[in-house]
Amino acid sequence: MDQKPTHNTQSMQNANETGIYKLLVVGIVVSILGVYLRFAFDSITLSIVSWVILFIGAFLCCKAVFKILGA
């Protein structure tokens, strides 16, 4: 009665794709750049641009996470 769990489900195969993790790393790097620019200089224009960069990075990370979840 010892049943070993199988990890061949569709969600596990989706979670093991390398493209998802590349997207996640790119999103993290873009977010870090946005945070750095947010606090590096004091300019209204640069502040707005850094917020946009930060939200783009966060969007990429969320997109990668939802791909892992299969949603």
What does this structure look like?
There is one protein chain. The protein is mostly helical. It is 77% helix and 0% strand. It has one domain. It has three helices and no strands. The chain starts with 9 loop residues before the first helix and ends with a helix. Keywords: Membrane, Transmembrane, Transmembrane helix.
List keywords for this structure.
transmembrane helix; 71 residues; transmembrane; membrane
Q: Supply Rg.
A: 18 Å
What is the strand content?
under 5%
User: Unreliable stretches, pLDDT < 50, 5 or more residues?
Assistant: none
The total tally of domains equals 1
**If you average the pLDDT, what whole number results?**
84
| Secondary-structure element order, N to C | HHH
**How would the global form be characterised?**
rod-shaped
User: How many DSSP helices?
Assistant: 3
Give the total of beta strands. Answer: 0
Q: How many strands, which pairing sense, and closed or not: the largest β-sheet?
A: none
Helix content: over 70%
Decide which structural class fits the backbone: mainly alpha
What is the rounded distance between the termini?
Answer: 33 Å
Summarize the structure.
The protein is mainly alpha-helical and 71 residues long. It has three helices and no strands.
Write the layout of secondary structure elements.
Elements: H1 10-15, H2 18-40, H3 44-69
